[in-house]
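Q: Joint fold for the lines below.
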Amino acid sequence: MRWLGAHWNALRLALRRLAAAPLNTLLAALGIGIALALPAGGALLLNHVTAMTQGMPATPQLTAFLAVDAERKTALAAATRIRNLPGVARTQLLAREDTLARMKSGALADAIGVLPNNPFPDAIVVTPADSINEVPAAIEQLAATLRQWKEIEHVQVDADWARRLAAFVRLARTALLLLAALLGVGLVAITFGTIRLQLLTRRAEVEVSRLLGATDGFIRRPFLWHGALLGWLGGIAAWLIVAAAILWLRLPLAELAQLYGFDLLLALPDAAASAALLAGAALLGWLGALLSMRQFLRGME
Amino acid sequence: MIRFDRVTKRYPPDITALADVSAEIGAGELVAVLGHSGAGKSTLLKLIPAIERPTSGSVLVNGQNVGALGRKALPYLRRNIGLVFQDQKLLFDRSVLANVLLPLEIAGFAPKEAKRRAEAALDKAGLLARARALPVALSGGEQQRLAIARAVAHRPALLLADEPTAYLDADTARDVANIFTEFHRVGVTVLLATYDAGLFPAARPLRLDHGRLA
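A: Joint structure:
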C-alpha cells in the first residue's frame, strides 16, 4: 500500500513537471512521435500488404497465349501436348469467348464494348508439377520450351511477380525491424537527454533528498514516471501521425491497388496494435530515464 | 548514543580536518561543538550521518559503525537524524510546506499524516501562516526556522545543526537558539556547531582547535 502511495505521489509529481513546461513536453513528445510513426506506419502497411498477398496463389503458373486467329482445335492440341510435357501437373484451356465475357463484366466493359472483334486469344493455363514449382530455373526452362512452339505467341509466368512481392514483403519486414530497433534506440536517447536535463536542473533537490535519507528508488521514481509518460505521449503523437497519414493516403492507395486488381483499403490501427504502440513507447521512455538516472546517480557518488 | 573513537579525517592533498578525536555524547544531551573557523566542527558533524567518512578511527551511532555502512544502508541512518545545514539547503522552487513534507515523504508517511506533522512543525517554528509561500519570500531568520522545522518534522531522536545562528542578527539568533534548547528539554539529543557558546548556556561544550579536542 505504501509502495503504491509512493508511486502515486511520484506520478503526480511527474505530471506536474510535464505540465510546468508544456512547450518542452510537446516538442519532446513530437520528436518521439515522429521517430515512432515511421516503423508503426510501416508495420501497419506491411500487415495490409501481407494480408493481401496471402490471398494469392503461391504456386507459379504459366499462361501460354495462342494467336488471335488460331483455331480451337489447334488450342486443344497444344493443351494436350503441354500436359504431356515432363514437369506439368495440369492444363486448363481459357476459351477467348469466355475471356471476352469476363472482361465485359469488369471495369473495362465500356472500352471493350466498342471493339469490333474479340481481341483476346485462346490461352492455356499451365500448372507446373510440385517437383519443379519451387525451382525458378525449371519453370523458366518450361516457359522457354513453350516459346519455341510456332502455335504459341506469348508465354507469361503468372505468379512470378507475386513471389517477388512476397520476397519484397519479407525483406521490407526485416528492414522495418532494423529501422524500429534503430528508432527505438533513438527514443531511448531522446528520453535519456530529456531526463538528464531535468536531473541537472534538479541536482540540488536530488542532493537534499539524499541527505534527508531518500533511497535511490525514491529519487528515481518521479524521473522514471517522467520518462514513461514522455514515451507514452510520444506514442500518442505517433498514433495521431499514423492515423493522419492513413486518412490522407487510404483513397489514393486504394485506387492504385485497384488498378492492379487488388482491394487495399488501409484501416486505423486496431485496439491491440494501438495498446502495443503506447505500451512500447512508455517502456522505451522508462528505459531511457532509467539509464539516465543510473549514470547521474553514479556520477554523484 | 554517539561515540567518536580516535577519529582522524584528512582531505587531499594533505589537510587534516580532525586528528585523533575521541568523544562521547549521551542520549538526551545538548552539546555545542565550539571552535574557530576551520577547527573541524562541520567535519565532525558530517561524520555522524556519514556525509563524510573518517580516514581512520570509528564513529558509532547507537552502537553502529556509520563509517562502514554501505550505500544502501545510509538512507535508513539519515532518516533517524534531523539535519540543519549551514547553508540550509532549502528547495526554493517548492513551497514552505512542501519543503517540510519532503523528509516525511521520504520516510514513507501517509499523505494525511505527513501533512499533519509538517503543519505541526511549521506551527512550532512560527511559520504556519507562511506555509504556501516560497522560501525566497522568507527572511533569513524565517528560512533558518524553516530548515529547523524540516529537520524535526519526522521527530528524530538526534538533531544535528551546523552553525544554525550564523548570519542572523542577535535577536533572531537567540530565538533560533531557544528552539534547539526546547527540543533538548523534550528529550531530543542535540549536537550543534557554533561560534557563539553564549547562545547555548545549557550545552556541554566540546571545543575543537585545529582538528583536535582542546
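Q: Anything notable?
A: Chain A has a mean pLDDT of 86. Chain A has ten helices and four strands.
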